[in-house]
Amino acid sequence: VHQSKLDFFCKLGYGKEDICKVLENLGQEALEDDVLKELIRMGSKPQALEKQAQPSQLKLVARGSCSTTPGPKWLGEDESDASNSLRPIVIDGSNVAMSHGNKEVFSCWGIQLAVDWFRERGHTYIKVFVPLWRKEPPRQDSPIADQHILEELEKQSILVYTPSRKVKGKRVVCYDDRYIVKVAYEKDGVIVSNDHYRDLQNENPEWKWFIEQRLLMYSFVSNRFMPPDDPLGRHGPTLINFLSKKPVLPEKKWQPCPYGKKCTYGNKCKFFHPERLHQAQLSVADELRAKRNIPLALGKEEERSQCS
Hints:
This protein is α/β, with parallel strands linked by helices. 41% of the residues lie in helices and 11% in strands. It has three domains: 42 residues; 161 residues, Rossmann fold, CATH 3.40.50.11980; 36 residues, no CATH class. Keywords: Endonuclease, Hydrolase, Magnesium, Metal-binding, Nuclease, Zinc, Zinc-finger.
């Protein structure tokens, strides 16, 4: 009886020492319910519950080691760039604003339209570069419209002012185009501008290739920002693939042959023939040659067999 009760409570997960103490106190003829109540009163827990109650110890992994468990994510780490499949966008603010203002007014509303267009498509990294002297009050020779938009974009960490200062009453301006190309090149992004940056192409051969392949031109049509659907020409990638890090190739769709079964082009036909899926696509001339060579080959074999 003692062994059967010991085995029963051991299967429940209690330790042998606790079970023996309770049986000695209550006696060998004690009921199982009484023994279980006494074990609970003593505070004894099954081993499975004790393992769950113990806090899991954090394992320190050496830097650079291969670990299957994902490491902790540090605060401030930008996870959007890793998961985002769209390229970063770098906008030439001066070029966009002057284009929207018909090359007469620095229209900040044009910059806002361009930023909103890329936001709606899901781009998270958008930077606009504008010279610092555009924060000054507008003058007759350099009019500015909707200047408050620059302040709003700066608060959103989208607008970046390129440095400038005055020396003996003359304004010294840093070359903002170099900022635009450099940031876009380092981020492997897209430059939004109608400028070709020929001076920077001659300055750096790596920038030359990058400007040729990553320059996105645009137009404004009735306050609507419109980039082309084929940024690199008719035979280049589409706008969706141009703005994506991993371009998606379109599925090849075969156009059915307009002649159907009457087509005489054979394997040279560029259209789709559903009836030729499991057939060798030979031209008519090749089929006639094949039929003509078959009996000749059989006759030669019969002659050889007779000679032998």
